[in-house]
Amino acid sequence: MWRAGKSEKKVAKANAKNARFRIFAWAALLSLICGAIEFGQPLEDVIQACRDTLRAREASKDIVVVGIDDRSVQELGGLGFRRRIDGQAVDSLFALGAKRVFFDRAYADPTTMREDTVFRDALKRHEGRVFLGTMNPKDMQTGKFTEVAPLPEFLAVTRVVSLNGRTSPFGLTAKLPYNGTLQGKLVRSMSATLAGTGPATRDHYRPDWSIRINSIPTISFADVVRNNVSRDQVAGKDVVVGYTASSVNDIHHILLQGWLPGVYFHVVGAQTLKQGLPVNWGWIPGFAIGLGLGWAHLYVRRRGVILATSVAACLLLGLVPLYLDAHLITVDVVPGVLLFAIVAYRGMTLRRVLRSSQTNMISGLPNLTALRQAGDRRAATLIALKMRNYAEIAASFDQVVERAMIDEVRRRVLLNGDGEDIYHSEDTLLWFSTLPMGEELAHHLEGLKAVLSSSLTIGGRDIDVSVSFGVDADQERQMASRVGSAMLCAEEAARGNDIWKFYDPERRHEAAWQLSLLSRLDQAIDSGEVWVAYQPQLDLKTNRISGAEALVRWTHPERGLIGPDEFIAVAEKHNRIEKLTRFVLDRAVEVAARINAMGIDFDISVNLSVQLLQAPELMSVIDAILDKHDFPAAKLILEITETGRLDRSGSSMAMMKALTARGIGVSIDDYGTGNATMDYLKILPSDEVKIDRQFVADIDTNTQDRILVSSTIEMAHSLGRRVVAEGVETAAVLQTLSDLGCDSAQGYLIGRPMALDALLSAIAPDRQVLAGRN
Predict the structure, then answer these.
(1) Given the DSSP bridges, would you call strands 159-162 and 130-134 parallel, antiparallel or unpaired?
(2) Is the pTM of this model over 0.70?
(3) What is the structure's pLDDT at 13?
């Protein structure tokens, strides 16, 4: 079975590996093609425009646009106003202190000789400081580039700059060249000339469109001609004169900035070049990033890595390009984003398909296939929770209720501090715990059972779930074997009605045996394996059986009679003593009530752990039992064990006072040993003292023991306490106790711990124990 499972696991891994390779290969190929043919350029422009908007900033004020706007056209006689007005504008601008004047026009067509002469003379007066434009448009018929240049007479007295530029597909953005050509020679572009920089190449660059065009200083051409411009608006600045009127065709679109006159593009380009030369790294870096992150996202299946690659993709393909834009470095991210997006989406669908084969269809939790493929070994304790009545619940309700029930069980398990990953197989949930096999784990499972014992409210219905646990802590074995042993232990615990069962191949470890006993204790009480024996107590004054001490016994079906020392201490340590004490107290009071109903005056003593004195509900529990059997409180004696653990000023002492006030007898057990000494005889609100057997056994021959017992009896009587001696095994010891004035005796001479029938025979009125007594 294991070999078949291992082979199946290998096949599943191979299929998943092939699927991942196909996803990665196709994503890489599509992205490579997209980058090579610039298929994603429109989307790239949109992304770039968004980044520009995030970095939006105002233009510097060292370049001023003089716009031939709608008002100028109207006031100066239309678009074809006389050229002398251009000359007049040149003189006015330099009179205002302009540094240089650039015209976003070629002046290639002659007008009248007089008008052209006036304009030429104005250019000559400022020779070397005025720049006219030249362009290289493409002839739509021949497909060749032509030259549009200023008239020869203008060229003789002025300088020229290239006005070329180009827009991207769909007119989303625009690029500008560093240079153009005129008569076969390179001519610097207007933006490069304005910036005073730029290489001798015809390559284009992308202006920094984060500069808001509406922030560029603009003056109306009409105001310049009519001298309505202040000097500080122009002095020391470069001036670019161009059309801004709505009736001119020189209007271009910049995404997220709108339709704008071309004259502003040169200004934005110049301000870009003043910051440095733009660099375009192209699509390969983004593609490489997408390639690396996509591989990690697809092949490293840890949840943290998948999340980390997604975050890294956002940073490297989103925020880093934003940072690079601020340093005039452009990176195309669409191929990389496309690659990673394909890998992430297809990887998600692949994981979803794989997860469906590793997911329980009812609960949506990982199934045993997922658990077996989680790793061959894991350094943690494997716990299996078997829902004993799962089949009945599933048969009684629909799948919605069934799933809600499992979700609620899972929630309570998680609230109890157990592992994050819980696996579901039919009626069993499995998970890993960091607790090693031992008492702490047993206590933890008890708490979990208590949490799950309360009804689950599902859809207005109360559902009771009965659970048992199986535990495998052998971290060296294969996972499939551990799963099987944990589930087998849970099944055995359910059949035995135990809380848990630990996987122990040798079944020899005493710690595991004690914990197994503890897990079975509740069932043992309910099934009758745990019972009450009674050891009679002899009243030395009346020479009759006046009472008995109730002692718990356990007859195990496999191990036989189990001594109380084997399970009482463990039960007390794991907070299981309450139910055991309640059981003994109820049986003992019931028996004592029956004996008293026979007309025999009979007291009953029951051991009470100091631990229970701290339980606020102790008094109500005792009252309920006394009322149930109509038994007088004065005939019940509670023997307090381990008095050294008492808190003198705490709740334990307060509870003892409440018990005595109720009329219930309180006895100091094992007096003379440990801390049960004279100090406690003084402070404890008790009615009785039980002298430990080690002081009683030899009082007929040991003078020191006899003195100690005699002084104890005298002191107890002076304080109003009765005295009971334990461990009486010979008639001589019994006679000595009687001579010393001891009130009662208990031991093998009087009677061993016995069943109820034997007790009833022992308390016959005519039974004589002391030889020679009247």
Answers:
(1) parallel
(2) no
(3) 62
